[in-house]
C-alpha cells in the first residue's frame, strides 16, 4: 500500500495516524512483542471509550470447569428478542481470558454490540495442556447451549445468537460450527458465525509448543483435527476475516477456508481484510470509533436477522 492509499485508509477507518504507523512498523508478523506493543498503544484508547449505560453480569457459569464462565453485557432499556453475539478470545490455545485489564479488554467487544442494539457476551474457555482437542470447540457449544436456554430472560432471542471468535477462538468456533460431529441433532444452533484470523490448518512438521499442547505430539491425526479438509457443514452463514498485518500463512488459511466452503457447498462466506490492523489490534479497536472492523460485522448480522 502506498502512502496515499495508507492515509486514505486511515481517514476512512478513523485509525489514529500514530497508531496506524506503529502497527505498520511491526510488519506482517505476530509475537509476544507485537502483542504487548499493540496492547500498550491501545489501552489509552480503550480507557476513553464511554461505558455508561451498560450493565455487566459477570462470571456466569456455563459448564463445570472454573474457566467455563461468561459475562453478559446489557443496555439500560428492557427490550426483547434482541440478537446476541458471544465472543471467544484468542491466546494460542494456552492463554487468554474474557477480561484483560479488568473489563476494558475484551469488554470493548461486548459493549460494541450493546451499543448496536444487541446483547454482548464474552466467554472464557478451557486451555491446553489441561484441555486438548476438541475441548475448546466443546466449550463453544456449551456456551451456546447456555445462551439458547437462558438468553430470553435477558431480553435476547435464542434464534438470533451469533458466534464470534478471534485467533484460537476462531479455531474453536469454526471447529464447532463447520463439523457435524460437534453438533447436537438439530445442527449447530447459531444464526451465524464470524471468524477473525483463525489458524485453520495443522502440520505435524515444525509444530509449535502451543500447538503440541492442544493437539498432542505431531502425528497423522493432525490432519484429522484441522478445520481445513474436514468441513462438512455448510448451512450456517459465515463471515471470514483476516488482518492486513497478519502473518501471510495465517491469511492464507482464511482464504483456503473460504475456498473450501465455496467448493463444497456452492456459496462463499463473506470475506473482509481488516486494513491497517494486525492480529490483535483488530479486536482492540472494536468500539473505539475505528469503523474498519465493527461495522462490517454489524452489517453481516443485520443481513441475516
Distinctive features:
305 residues, alpha/beta, Rossmann fold, 8 strands, disordered N terminus
Notes on the protein architecture:
This protein has helices spanning 3-13, 17-26, 32-48, 107-115, 135-150, 168-178, 209-215, 221-225, 248-265, 281-284, 294-304; strands spanning 54-61, 69-75, 82-88, 119-123, 156-166, 192-196, 238-243, 270-274. Helix 2 (17-26) packs antiparallel against helix 3 (32-48) and helix 5 packs across helix 6. Strands 1-2-4-3-5-6-7-8 form an eight-stranded mixed β-sheet, with helices on both faces. It has eleven helices and eight strands. Residues 1-12 have low confidence and may be disordered. Helix content is 39%, strand content 18%. The longest helix has 18 residues, at 248-265.
Q: Per the principal axes of the C-alpha atoms, what is the gross shape?
A: globular
Radius of gyration based on Cα positions: 18 Å
What's the CATH H-level homologous superfamily?
Alpha/Beta hydrolase fold, catalytic domain
Task: Tell me the series of helices and strands, N- to C-terminal.
Answer: HHHEEEHEHEHEHHEHEHH
Number of folding domains?
1
Quote the distance from N terminus to C terminus: 35 Å
Main sheet characteristics: 8 strands, mixed
Low-confidence parts: 1-12
Enumerate how many helices there are, as a single number: 11
Mean model confidence by pLDDT: 94
For the largest sheet, list the strands in their spatial order: 1-2-4-3-5-6-7-8
CATH hierarchy class name: Alpha Beta
What is the CATH architecture assignment?
A: 3-Layer(aba) Sandwich
Number of strands: 8
Secondary-structure-derived class? alpha/beta
Our estimate of the beta-strand percent is 15-25%
Find the CATH topology.
Rossmann fold
Helix content: 25-40%
Amino acid at each position: 500500500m502506498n502512502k496515499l492509499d495508507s492515509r486514505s485508509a486511515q481517514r476512512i477507518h478513523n485509525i489514529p495516524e500514530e497508531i496506524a504507523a506503529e502497527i505498520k512498523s511491526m510488519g506482517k508478523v505476530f509475537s509476544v512483542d507485537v502483542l504487548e506493543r499493540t496492547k500498550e498503544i491501545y489501552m489509552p484508547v480503550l480507557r476513553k471509550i464511554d461505558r455508561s449505560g451498560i450493565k455487566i453480569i459477570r462470571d456466569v457459569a456455563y459448564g463445570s470447569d472454573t474457566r467455563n464462565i461468561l459475562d453478559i453485557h446489557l443496555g439500560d432499556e428492557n427490550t426483547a428478542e434482541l440478537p446476541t453475539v458471544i465472543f471467544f478470545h484468542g491466546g494460542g490455545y494456552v492463554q487468554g481470558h474474557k477480561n484483560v485489564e479488568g473489563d476494558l479488554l475484551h469488554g470493548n467487544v461486548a459493549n460494541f454490540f450493546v451499543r448496536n442494539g444487541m446483547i454482548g457476551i464474552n466467554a472464557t474457555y478451557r486451555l491446553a495442556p489441561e484441555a486438548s482437542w476438541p475441548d475448546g470447540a466443546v466449550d463453544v457449544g456449551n456456551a451456546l447451549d447456555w445462551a439458547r436456554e437462558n438468553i430470553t430472560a435477558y431480553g435476547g432471542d435464542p434464534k438470533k445468537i451469533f458466534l464470534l471468535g478471534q485467533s484460537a477462538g476462531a479455531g474453536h468456533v469454526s471447529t464447532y460450527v463447520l463439523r457435524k460431529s460437534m453438533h447436537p441433532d438439530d445442527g449447530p444452533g447459531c444464526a451465524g458465525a464470524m471468524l477473525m484470523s483463525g489458524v485453520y490448518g495443522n502440520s505435524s512438521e515444525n509444530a509449535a509448543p502451543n500447538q503440541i499442547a492442544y493437539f498432542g505430539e505431531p502425528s497423522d491425526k493432525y490432519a484429522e483435527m484441522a478445520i481445513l479438509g474436514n468441513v462438512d457443514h455448510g448451512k450456517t452463514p459465515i463471515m471470514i476475516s483476516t488482518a492486513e498485518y497478519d502473518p501471510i500463512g495465517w491469511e492464507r488459511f482464511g482464504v483456503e477456508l473460504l475456498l473450501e466452503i465455496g467448493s463444497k457447498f456452492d456459496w462463499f462466506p463473506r470475506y473482509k481484510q481488516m486494513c491497517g490492523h494486525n492480529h490483535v489490534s483488530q479486536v482492540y479497536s472494536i468500539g473505539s470509533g475505528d469503523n474498519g472492523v465493527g461495522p462490517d460485522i454489524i452489517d453481516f448480522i443485520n443481513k441475516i436477522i
